[in-house]
Every structure is written in structure tokens, then in C-alpha cells.
Design brief:
By secondary structure, this protein is mainly beta. It is built from no helices and 39 strands. β23 and β24 form a beta hairpin. The protein starts with 9 loop residues before the first strand and ends with a strand. The relative contact order is 0.10.
């Protein structure tokens, strides 16, 4: 994820076992890469290499990392023949990682060269909150403090950002992706000839995703520069991209029909699940975490107007409730949990505000954090009032802070709830959409 590193803990890792052998690889496969090095800073590392001195023509590169936890595609990156570097993020503190690079030819892979990098024991980092403001500009806020936002791109209908902090925006004609570099500098076009929608998305590896405006397929643009790939022929009603690169689409038919969920893993494995419904609810939202788990929001078709989140764990076809009580809610996921900001009170739509009915206390009183294993924490909050009924999705950072926009009521604007609870902090009185923490 994009983090402004606040420590000086940069290091150059050792080149270790697996160095190029003295004898050349067989001519039927490429030789071992040369000058393999890894440099690291905080929770990221970049591997670089040179061409082999002998062997067959290179068709591609295969770079692996171990341990592979929290890495897309089980720690295996497949890169084009022109690649000479690969970046890995989301590394764990005080952990030694081994990176292996090998060239792949038409008849097989050559010898691997391995290098190691040990991450610092303590790293202070800062994520950023990105959003689209009311004028159509992509802006960036610090996730802590109340500093004014920085404008990244103007006149943008939509956007996404990668873990480095580069921002990607669809062109005005929806045929190209334009990148705004994290470090500043001129914007540049990274892909053309596309059929984009404004709803761009990304994963931790930097791959881009959208629903093709012609075919309706969820499409992936690989970070390695490869051609776009259609992952799911029909996007369905709702779709989500986990930070691990798992892409899921959920389709809800008629009331009472099963919800069909199609998921594609980073390695391309496709699974289809059918989830039976109780006949009184409609699918109204879909979120993903970083481990293949999904959270589905269902909205009651009856007079209550209630909505709530359910967990669909990786590999399961049975959703379980992710909420302990009904309330007016703002929700988001980070890499490991579902976060919900819930109001103190709630009442059915038919009775809310009516002379003989109830008047709900819409104060956001609780921040609930629920992990996929069921571990739940609740923190008391205050200072902001919900706009009311509906499915409201915000964004969350890895520390557990929740960000959301309130569009109506006495406390309109952009807000942050600290993971520890307490009084909510208003970041802006303006209106923002497409919140994203990276």
C-alpha cells in the first residue's frame, strides 16, 4: 500500500545462495539472470536483475517470494521478457524474505538466482485517503490530522490508486488510462484502445480492473504491461477486488432467488457459488478484504427498510451475519476486517419520524471491527450523525480507522473515526465520493 515512510530504515539486502552457476545452462533453456540485487525500505522491496550470459531466448520472467503470506498469486510474479525489476509490498516487520528470479523460455525455465532482504523490526508509516471531490478532482488527504487535501487530477469521473501512490484516471473518451505519478511530474498514458467505465479499481500488486463498457466483462490490466484480460464475462450486479487480487462478482436475480457469486483468484482459478436467500431481501452491496473473504449487504424489501452485512468466507457457500444489531451504518473493509460505524438507534422506515412512531437517534455511537474468524471489537464514538437509511460505503486504513462521507443531516462532510473510538474528526465540510485508502 502507499505509505510515506517516516523512518530511515532503508537497506540493501545480501546477494546469497543461488547465484549464477559457473557453467552455462543448457542451450534449450535460458541461462541464469545476472546482477540480481534487492533493495528494501520498510515494508517493501525491489528486485533487479540483468540478462543471462548464455542460453535460449527469454519468453518471460518468473519472480517468487518466500514467505508468501499477504502476497498476490501465492508469491509468484510472471513478467514479460522486457522486465528487469519487480516490486513487492505489504512485507511483515522483522522477517527475512527470499526472492528468486529465473528466465523462462519456450522449452522451460533456466536456473534461479536468489537474494534475501530482512525487513526492519519497527516501521512508522502513513497511508493516504484518496477521494473524488464535488468538482470532479481526485484529492489526497493524510489519514491522520486535518490538513487540507492535495489535488492530484482535475476533471476526473473516476480513479484508483496503487500501493505506491500512483493515481490512475480514465481519459475523457474512456479509451485510455492516464497515470499521475506519486512523486509528482507529468501525467502519462499507460494503456490505450480500451472500453473503460469510470469505476477503476486496483489490488496491492498494482493491477487495474474495470467493467468493459462494451462486453460487460470484468477486465484486468496487468501491472507488468501485458494485454487486458477478461476475467468474468458478465460483471453481475456488484463486483469487488480484494487487495490480494481476488476478483468477485455477485448477481442477484428475482426476489427470493439465489445469489450467484463468481470469484477468480490471482492465479486464474475460478469458483462459482450459489447462495440461497430467505425471500425477503435484495443484494445491495459487496466488499472484499485481503484474504479472499467477501461481505454482502442485503436490503429488506419489507416495510422495515433494514440493511445489514453478512460474511461469505473464502471457500464457503453459507453467509453468516456480520452484525450484532440493526442500525444506520457506514461500512468498509481493510486487508483483514469489516468495519462498521453504527448509530445509537434505529427504527423501521414506516414508523421513523411519524407522529405515532419512533424518532431514531442517528448519532454514530459505535465503531465495530469484525475479522473473518469472528473476532469482534466495539469502540464508543460520538460527534457525527448518520444521514439515515441506505447502504453507505466508506474506506478503512490498516490501523482500523474508518472514513466516510455524510451527505445529509446536521453533520454533513467527510469524517474519520479513530480505531480506538472517541470523538469523530471532520476532515472537510465538502462532499466526496469513491473513498479509497491505500
Amino acid at each position: 500500500m502507499f505509505r510515506a515512510v517516516l523512518t530511515a530504515a532503508a537497506a540493501v539486502a545480501l546477494v546469497i545462495g543461488g547465484a549464477a552457476p559457473a557453467t552455462a545452462a543448457p542451450s534449450s533453456v535460458p541461462g541464469a539472470p545476472t546482477s540480481v540485487r534487492v533493495t528494501g525500505a520498510a515494508d517493501s522491496a525491489t528486485v533487479t536483475w540483468g540478462l543471462p550470459k548464455s542460453g535460449a531466448k527469454i519468453a518471460s520472467w518468473r519472480v517468487t517470494v518466500a514467505p508468501k503470506q499477504q502476497q498476490p498469486d501465492a508469491g509468484v510474479d510472471r513478467l514479460p521478457a522486457s522486465a528487469r525489476s519487480d516490486r513487492f509490498g505489504n512485507l511483515t516487520a522483522s522477517t527475512t524474505y527470499t526472492f528468486s528470479v529465473r528466465a523462462v523460455g519456450s522449452r522451460g525455465a533456466g536456473k534461479a538466482v536468489s537474494v534475501r532482504y530482512t525487513t526492519p523490526g519497527s516501521v512508522q508509516t502513513v497511508e493516504s485517503l484518496f477521494a473524488l471531490d464535488g468538482s470532479g478532482s481526485v484529492v489526497r488527504f493524510p489519514v491522520s490530522g486535518t490538513s487540507a487535501p492535495t489535488t492530484i487530477a482535475k476533471d476526473a469521473a473516476g480513479f484508483t490508486a496503487d500501493d505506491v501512490g500512483d493515481v490512475f484516471v480514465p481519459s475523457a473518451d474512456r479509451r485510455s488510462v492516464v497515470m499521475y505519478p506519486a512523486g509528482g511530474g507529468a501525467a502519462r498514458t499507460v494503456a490505450t484502445g480500451l472500453h473503460l467505465t469510470a469505476d477503476l479499481r486496483s489490488d496491492v500488486a498494482g493491477n487495474l480492473y474495470w467493467v468493459d463498457s462494451v462486453s460487460g466483462a470484468i477486465t484486468k490490466l496487468p501491472v507488468d504491461g501485458g494485454a487486458p484480460v477478461a476475467l468474468v464475462p458478465s460483471a453481475g450486479t456488484y463486483w469487488a477486488v480484494g487487495r490480494d487480487g481476488t476478483v468477485s462478482a455477485a448477481t442477484f436475480g428475482t426476489q427470493g432467488a439465489a445469489t450467484k457469486v463468481v470469484s477468480v483468484s490471482p492465479s486464474g482459478k475460478r469458483t462459482t457459488r450459489s447462495i440461497a436467500e430467505n425471500g425477503y431481501q435484495y443484494l445491495s452491496g459487496l466488499l472484499a478484504d485481503g484474504a479472499g473473504n467477501l461481505y454482502l449487504n442485503y436490503f429488506s424489501s419489507g416495510a422495515s427498510g433494514a440493511s445489514g452485512w453478512s460474511l461469505l468466507a473464502k471457500g464457503s457457500s453459507t453467509p453468516v451475519s456480520a452484525e450484532s444489531r440493526i442500525g444506520f451504518t457506514y461500512g468498509a473493509t481493510n486487508g483483514r476486517a469489516l468495519l462498521l460505524a453504527k448509530s445509537a438507534g434505529w427504527c423501521a422506515a414506516a414508523s421513523e419520524g411519524s407522529p405515532a412512531g419512533c424518532t431514531a437517534d442517528k448519532t454514530i455511537a459505535t465503531l465495530v471491527t469484525r475479522k473473518a474468524d469472528g473476532t469482534t471489537t466495539e469502540r464508543t464514538t460520538s460527534g457525527v450523525t448518520s444521514e439515515g437509511r441506505g447502504v453507505h460505503v466508506g474506506a478503512a486504513d490498516e490501523a482500523g480507522d474508518l472514513f466516510f462521507d455524510v451527505s445529509a443531516g446536521p453533520t454533513t462532510g467527510l469524517w474519520r473515526l479513530d480505531a480506538a473510538g472517541g470523538v469523530a474528526v471532520q476532515l472537510s465540510a465538502g462532499q466526496f465520493t469513491r473513498l479509497l485508502v491505500i
